Amino acid sequence: MASGLFRKKSIEKIISDQQEMEALEGASMVRNLGVRDLTFLGVAAIIGASIFSAIGQASANGGPAVSLLFVFTAVACLFTAFCYARFAATVPISGSAYTYAYTSLGEIIAWILGWNLLLEYAISNVAVAISWSKYFVDLCEGLGLHIPEYLTMDFLSAKRAFTEVQPLINSGKQLSELSVNLREGYTAYLEAPVFLGWHFVANLPALFITICITYLVYIGIKESKNMNNALVVMKLLVIALVVGIGAFYVKVENWSPFAPNGIAGVLKSVAAVCFAYIGFDSISTTAEECKNPQRDIPRAMMWALGICTILYVLVTLVLTGIVPSAGLAGIEDPLAYMFTIVGLHGVAGVVAASAVIALTSALLVYQLGQPRIWMTMSRDGLLPKAFSKIHPKYRTPSFSTIMTGVLVGLPALFANLEEVINLSSIGTLFAFVLVCGGVLILDLNPENQKKSKFKIPYINAKYVVGGSLLVAMYLFYPESIGDWFNVHFTGNAKADSWIMSLFFVAWFVLAFFSYTKNLSLIPVLGLLVNLYLMTQMGSANWERFIYWCLVGVVIYFAYGYKRSKLKL
């Protein structure tokens, strides 16, 4: 059974299956994407909900120092991007990290990874749809069109606000004295129609945009590409406007202290910052629609990461330079808010209007990615055949696209933005870890290295990984291990301490194999940095993540294990 769980699909087999698929009439997709289109897809995916919403709370937690966290996370993503590019140039198939894991780590790992990519794409799109809804509602308000609060937010936020505000109202506090979020949530829950004792609070604009984007993705890659390119140009112009005008209103004294809540405050924003980079890997899901995937995908990943990192850092510095970081807590539209603070209401209106357009492009890319992964999994027999069905006219994975729309649209009606971001981030980092590990395993065979048109620069990790481990342990562990154990492995913090300890165990294992196998440094660094970022997600997110993986394992044994084409 163990051998069946870890059966691998050879590179030759994957490529030959793809060639046979393309030879079948009606089974192939249209190759329409060049390096510019792919770069724009990457920029569209990366710069989405985070720069228009989540960056505000991240800056509130960590202050201007969050800009350095963006750089650190970008470096981690760069290491990972090298590994993605290595695989994309070797296995130019739409399955992305799922296919890469199938060639290097085995079927069960590939399935779990594919299952977690549902977290990355579908749940990330839920977050983008929620953010889009917020900006859309603000835009409508600016135009004099009021949409009832109970039709523009999730039930959980409204219920929490009502529970918090009701005692305050009873004690004589005025509603106008409370924050905007609490007022809106309280009003939504209070005014919502009640059915069988349940208050109907739902985010209808989020559902509406999901339906529209799903339709666009359904009718073809060319239409999606053209729309995305236009939206990305508009998005970049808006960010240039934000930075260019905002720079004149920056107060340097707002950058001091640079990290007002210390390193703990900066690390509190890890989930949001990681979420900000989700999407650069989505480029690889379009491999079967690229003109030259083995050349263009690696280039597009590097371009997209570089462009977005520069923009994130500039926007963070301008935002915290205009608004003191403490004033950004709970602000869902920070870029529009900062211009309101300085009296530029016209610019704030432009930002809010443009955010609606810009977030649409991020939604579009995620809706492109998920169906193509499901399509590949279905071809391997791990999902029903309907998921790999190609529309005879539009040449898109029709059923998978519809299912993605359903799985994004329904949760977007009721989901909470913060919970969605945290769960999505840990699933994405898990995918990054497996891709970096897969490259290390794949390259143990010199023949595999010869098959790739993209080479990761080789730096011997033999001494670097072990040496850095010794330095880290010296800095991390105090003189008295007994006192440290009593402090960290008892009480509420013990779960997080165990997670960190397991990280050091993984670091030791990597140091051992780096020394004995002369591993390449860049994939090893990608592994370590992504594992470290996962440790900062908190035990509650880890618990949800583990439950999610267990559900995936149950589904695999109930369906995929017996129907896998490698077993037949």
Automatic annotation (TrEMBL):
Q: How does it sit in the membrane?
A: Multi-pass membrane protein
Is Transport a UniProt keyword of this protein? yes
Q: List locations, semicolon-separated.
A: Membrane
InterPro entries xref list: AA/rel_permease1
Q: Does the keyword 4Fe-4S apply?
A: no
Which keywords appear in this protein's UniProt record, sorted alphabetically? Membrane, Transmembrane, Transmembrane helix, Transport
User: Which Gene Ontology MF annotations are present?
Assistant: amino acid transmembrane transporter activity
Signal peptide location: none
An annotated GO cellular component of this protein is:
membrane
* TM segment ranges: 38-59, 65-85, 196-218, 230-250, 262-280, 301-323, 335-366, 399-417, 423-444, 456-477, 497-515, 522-539, 545-561
Instruction: Name the Pfam families on file.
Output: AA_permease_2 (PF13520)
Q: Which PANTHER family match?
A: CATIONIC AMINO ACID TRANSPORTER 4, INNER MEMBRANE TRANSPORTER YGJI-RELATED
**Record protein name field:** Amino acid permease
Organism, scientific name? Sandaracinomonas limnophila
What is the organism lineage in this UniProt record?
Answer: Bacteria, Pseudomonadati, Bacteroidota, Cytophagia, Cytophagales
